[in-house]
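Could someone model S-adenosylmethionine with this protein?
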Amino acid sequence: MHQYAPQWLELREGADADARADSLLDPLRARLAHASGGAAELVVHDLGCGTGSMGRWLAPRLEGAQRWVLHDHDPGLLRLAADRAPRAAADGSPVTVTARRGEIGRLTGADLVDAALVTASALLDVLTVEEVDALAAACTDAGCPVLLTLSVAGRVELTPEHPLDAELGDAFNAHQRRGGLLGPEAVDAACDAFSRRGATVRVQPSPWRLGPREAELTEEWLCGWVGAACEQRPDLVDRADAYLVERLRACRAGELRAVVHHCDVLVLPGPPATGTVS
Ligand SMILES: C[S@@+](CC[C@H](N)C(=O)[O-])C[C@H]1O[C@@H](n2cnc3c(N)ncnc32)[C@H](O)[C@@H]1O
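Reply:
Sure, complex below.
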């Protein structure tokens, strides 16, 4: 099991919040209102919750009492997520949480039977095609909408450009696919898995736009990006070391900008409603 440092998840939380595609929220709210049937509380399952950043972002954007069920295979992160859970919905209604330790690939419809909504953030690209397929099957059985945010798209734009950017980007993407993980193919795989099951899928871009105000995050991200690329292509190490020194100097001087592309996916069960465009 790969372990995610809570410090890294905390560092990216602000950029994640700014990046998520707000435009998917209105169709989601409309579907939740239509499907609620007067239920006393909205049950939201957050898959791969980490320290709970998705809940802190989404719970205050939805109205009505909510019960979040947090899923992760890392018990330390689950504890942090439960401790730091949001307390109030958009209209002040209470938000409560419960935590469940487990593997996403083993989820079934029975695990999600009470779900009004399933969410995940920064999860799809670290799953295999079999895990994404199992997730889509479980969500389809549960018959609820699914909001999957911040999956990497495999594209990075750095300004100013550098001749090594593209080679490092390719090596990083190859590293993301190690051991059969989906990496940049995750969004296509999820769209395919849900579409095959008759759902309506919408995709919106959700890029990180990093400038001088996000220098700490940019530095940490750059070190991870270059490090993963070199793990994949050790022949790059010498040139990548010099590259990193130059990029970090520019970042500290406020002269580096980065757009790290992600995508958000909203899945609504069934075909598009008449008169809407998916
Ligand atoms: C990149 S982190 C994202 C965390 C959080 N959703 C966020 O946006 O900050 C991925 C999370 O998914 C969890 N995870 C990854 N693969 C998993 C799996 N197969 N089963 C359960 N949890 C998994 C990790 O432990 C980690 O907390």
